[in-house]
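Could you please consider the sequence and fold following this short note?
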Amino acid sequence: MIMNTATAFIAVFIWTITQHIQATTFEVPSQGISDIIQVTIPANTSEVNFWNNNITVIPHGYFVSLPELVRINLRSNHIRNIMDHSFSAVASLRVLLLGKNQLSFVTSEMFRGLHNLTQLRLNNNRLRCIQKGSFRDLRALAVLSLKDNLLTSLHECIFDPSNRPIHVELLLYKNKWMCGPELCWLSSAIGDWVTLRGWATPAQCASPSALTGHDLGSATGQDLRCANYGKYKSDEAAKGYKLVSYTRLVLK
């Protein structure tokens, strides 16, 4: 009798744990999904895995009814566009994996409201443009991976200068960095609130020719011509419309 009671208790315990796991983790990897709207996620889900599907667009409002979501895996899809505010309703989100997609730009509204996000992976995309203010709400960010893209520069205002992360690890290697005054802010931030991680391959300058192959993390103010930074800022202000215009063009 005691044995039967114990066995029944264990069976119920295992069933309860299994149901809990099933209820909080929603996985549809490698299912050939192209339209994410066709998939309904349970409201109490904390982790979502859409790895290795055919998703091309993340629509606004899709995750709005998932208040407990802490992790989203959208790696290895064909995502070209993420609508502004697509994740803004998911204030609990901590990990967002978007690597190995086809994103070419990041807008200033794409990651709004993600105040608790600690890890953002945008590696292995086609990124050429990251708009000013794109990460201004990511005050808890600890890891930002931008490796293996087509980036040439990062503006100092991608974060909120007055409320930036305490410390963030940047993965920047395998890009096409133009090592000039526009990266002076990064040079100053390294060792302060930024750490560059390159593993076996450090982030390297692609231009100018005098710095081609030079380790970006060790580039000095003289290397980057930081004495000309004031002029660069003035010139940038005069033509600042270009970045916004480019983003609007892509979104059309």
The longest helix spans residues 2-24. The chain has one domain: 2-251. Confidence is low (pLDDT under 50) at residues 11-21, 237-252. The helical segments are 2-24, 184-189, 229-238, 241-251.
